[in-house]
Amino acid sequence: MKLKYFAWVRERIGTGEEDIELPAGVVSVRDLLDWLKGRGDGYAEALRHPEVIRVAIDHEHVHHGDPVAGAGEIALFPPMTGG
Q1: In tens digits, what is the pLDDT along the chain, a chain of 83 residues?
Q2: Disulfide: which of 3, 32, 46, 64 matches 12 by Cβ 3.0-4.6 Å?
């Protein structure tokens, strides 16, 4: 599965994308965010407040309780503002 990171999430993690294989216990977006936080300091900093992170699975925005099974790509975005 490909993970893509945007804006300050990318800056804190230190990469724009990576290919990963999720552990069996990661079944929801929330599980994914919790698992990622344990992968290092940059991840922990980027996901310190996971409730504000927006997530898209295969280009469709999803909720944190939604499943990740079968996803080809998951993208993480910081909160967006507009004007």
Answers
A1: 999 999 999 999 999 999 999 999 999 999 999 999 999 999 999 999 999 999 999 999 999 999 999 999 999 999 876 55
A2: 46
Length of the chain, in residues: 83
Tokens of 70: 């079968």
- End-to-end Cα spacing for the chain: 34
Residue type, 36: L
The number of beta carbons lying within 10 Å of the beta carbon of residue 72 is 9
Give the Å distances, CA to CA, from 3 to 56, 81, 82, 83. 10, 23, 25, 28
> For residues 32 and 23, what is the distance between their CA atoms, to the nearest angstrom?
9
φ, ψ at 4 (rounded to 5°): -120, 140
